[in-house]
Amino acid sequence: MKTAVVILSLNAGEYFEKVLQSHAAQSFVPDARLLIDSGSSDGTVERAETFNWEIRRIEKNSFNHGVTRQQAAEYFFARGFECVIMCTQDVLLAEENTLQVLVNALQENQAAAAYARQMPLNERSMDGFFRLRNYPPRSRVKSREDIPELGLMTPFCSDTLAAWDLKKIMAAGGFPETEFGEDMLLGSKLILEGEKIVYCAESRCIHEHNSSFSELFSRGRGIGTLHCEHPELRKRFGSVGKCASKQLKLSEMLRFFLPLAVKYAGMFRGYWGKKLNF
Prior knowledge:
- By secondary structure, this protein is of the alpha/beta class.
- It folds into two domains: 3-206, Spore Coat Polysaccharide Biosynthesis Protein SpsA, Chain A, CATH 3.90.550; 213-276, no CATH class.
- It contains 13 helices and nine strands.
- It has helices at 15-24, 44-50, 65-78, 98-108, 126-134, 147-150, 166-171, 182-192, 213-229, 232-237, 240-247, 250-255, 257-276; strands at 3-9, 32-37, 54-57, 83-88, 92-93, 113-119, 140-142, 161-165, 197-206.
- Strands 1, 2, 3, 4, 5, 6, 7, 8 and 9 form a nine-stranded mixed beta sheet that branches.
- Helix 2 links the parallel strand 2 and strand 3 (54-57).
- Helix 9 packs across helix 13.
């Protein structure tokens, strides 16, 4: 399977050196590695060049989570590639076979997408707690038949580290123009069209956010805006609240009450701000 790895970057910092090293140590050697950088000034591009990554520079104001990924997908699809692995700049590949296992899961299940298990550094933080919840130790192949059980988690897929079958995602229209949730939106189209998404727990990476309250609010606002702009998600898969209520016990909600309240306030602001245009 002819495969490209794509990382989108902006001032990735010194940690990016470890990220690049984890890619260089992989047993799976992709046919291309592309860094799409939107204006870094901290040596991010130079670090990638030392690891022989192909570089594409774009203007910061032209970056879009969906459009930029779609442009990369189209670039490789036109060159005869079959698979593209989308990564973020802050994800560390945990083992030497992380990418190989992910690509195998995509192929063996004839799926449209496969995404990796994200392991936090701090399991006791709110971010760590929810990563353990959203990325459990058991793999699962998800399809349209799972909607009644899984709801919004059916089309869930994370471009933190995900492999996409280029032919199948192109047939579905590719990544949409959006500032948030391009993986969820494309995943929803694929699921509804009868394709499969694989959660591959055996493909592991290290990833977490130590978010401030303002960052939690901002992320919540992004989620709220996404669901306002795309009411088909609620119609087809159910609400965010219903999905969350299935996962959280009262004791867990109390444990993370303040950060959860901030995030939900952001969701409320994003949804109703977009709906009422304020």
